[in-house]
Amino acid sequence: MKLINKLFKIIFSKLTFAILLLILQVIVLYVLFMLFYEYIVYLFGGFTFLSILLVLYIVNSNENSSYKIAWIIPILIFPVVGIAFYCFCHLQISIYKVKKALVKEQSISKKYLTSNKEISSNLEKEDKSTYNLINYINNTSNNSVYNPSDIKYFKCGEDMFSSLINDLKNAKKYIFLEYFILEKGYMWDTILEILKEKVKENVEVRVMYDGMCSLMMLPYNYKDELLKYNIKCKMFFPIKLELSLHQNNRDHRKICVIDGDIAYTGGINIADEYINKKKRFGYWKDTAIRINGNCVNSYTVMFIEMWNIDGIDKCQYSKYINNSDVINNNGYIISYGDNPLNNKQIGKRVYMDIINTAKEYIDIITPYLILDEELLNSLIYASNRGVKVRIIMPHIPDKKLVYYLGRSYYKDLISNGISIYEYKKGFTHAKMFISDDIKAVVGTINLDYRSLYLHFECASYIYKNNVISSIKKDYDNTILESIKIDKNDVDKYNIFKRIIGKILRLISPLM
After folding, report:
1. Which of 110, 148, 153, 326 can pair with 470 through a Cys bridge, CB separation 3.0 to 4.6 Å?
2. For position 215, what pLDDT does the model report?
3. Strand boundaries in 95-163, DSSP class E
4. How does residue 17 score in pLDDT terms, banded at 50, 70 and 90?
5. Most distant CA pair in the chain: distance in Å?
6. Distance CA 65, CA 374 (A)
7. CA 364/CA 390 separation, integer angstroms
C-alpha cells in the first residue's frame, strides 16, 4: 500500500504534469515535422513568438520570483510544453469553482469574527507593530484578535492525545474534526469509539479528512462507514484519475473544535506515528496547542467554511459560535487560515513579519526547508543585523529528496551566522516560530512551497501570553537533543547528494 501511495503522489504532482507534457511536446514536434516539414521554420517561429509574449506576461505578473523563474525556463527552452503546461495550470475551471464557493462562505462568516474594539485598542497602545500585523491578518482572512482564556502547549503527540481524549469524552454539544491524515490504528480507533458514544448522547459530530487518505490509509468509501454511526463525514478533494491541478491543493490543516470552547491545532495528525505508537523514523517529535474561550471561534469558522465548500449538508455559523466576551491580561491570540486560491500567502507573511521585526532572537523548527528568495534574504538580513537565528531540522528525513534540497541552503545560512541543528532522536514534524520571548506561531505551516503556496493551512499567532515560556523551554530542550551543523559538516556531506540538492533548487516550487 505504501508503494501505491507513493505512485499516486507522483501521478498527481506538478512535476509529473511537466514530464507528461514534455513527452507530448516531443510527439507534437515529430508529428508537425512529418506533416509540415516545409513550414517547420514558421511553426517554430510562431511558438517562439508566443513563448516570448507569455514570458513578458509572467515577468509583469504578481507571482513570486521563484515561480516566475520556474515557469520562464521551460517556456523558453520547450515552447510547446511550456505554453501548454502554463495554460493547464492557470485555466482550471474546477479551481475557480472552489474559489468562488470559498469567497462566498467567507463573506457570510465575516460577521461572526468581529474584533472586540477594546482588545484591539489595548493592543494598539501596547505594540503598534503587532497591531499592524493583526490588522493585516484581519483584512486578508477576516480573523480577529482575542484575549485567550487559556492556552496549553504540548511538546509531543502523546501528551496532546491524552488531553484530547479527555475533552472529547466531556463534549456536550458538538465535535468538529478536520485533519490532513486520518489513519486506522490505535489513535483513531480510540477516538472513533468516543465519537460513537457521543453521537448516542446527541452530540453532533462532523469529521473531514483530506482525500489523500483514500490512497492507502482509508477505504475510498470510508465516509459511508462513518455515516452508519450517524457521524457526518466529508472527504476533501477526493483523489480522482484525472488531470486536475486542484488535486495539488490539499487540506493540510489539523483542527479539532469541541463545543465552541476548546480547539486544538499543531502538527499532529490522527495516526499512530504521531503519538509514537508506531515507529517510522525514530522518535516522532511534534507539537500542538489547546486554546480555550471565544478565541476558538476562528477555528470553528475555518472548519465550517471548508465543510460548506461543496454545498452539501451546510452548517449554519450562528449555531456554533461562542458568544462569550473575554477581556483579560493574558496576552493576545489570533488564529488564521491560509488558502492557495487567494494569492495572499498569509502564513508566509506572518513568518516574514516575525523575522523582520525580531530584536533578540528567532527560533524556528520545521520538517522541511525550501526557501524562496524573500525568506532566505530576510533570514540572512536578520542575522546580519544582530538577531540570533536558530533552525531545527530533522536528522532522519521522511523524504530524502526534500531533505537534500533543504540541506542545499545550509551553507548560505551558516555562512551568515545562522545556527542549524538537526534533531538526532528521530523526525521532527513540528512547525513553530518563537521570537524575543513575546511572540510564537504554532500551526500546520511548514517552510516549503507546498505549505506556503499550495495547501490549505492554519496556525495561531500568540503574543505576550505565558504559554510562550513553555514553548521556548521545549525548543531549548530540543536543541540539546540535536546535532549542530557547521561548515565542515556541509563540506563533508556526500557530494552526489549536494549536487542533487542544488539541481532540485531549479524546480523547488514544483516539489
Report:
1. 153
2. 74
3. 150-154
4. low
5. 80
6. 9
7. 6
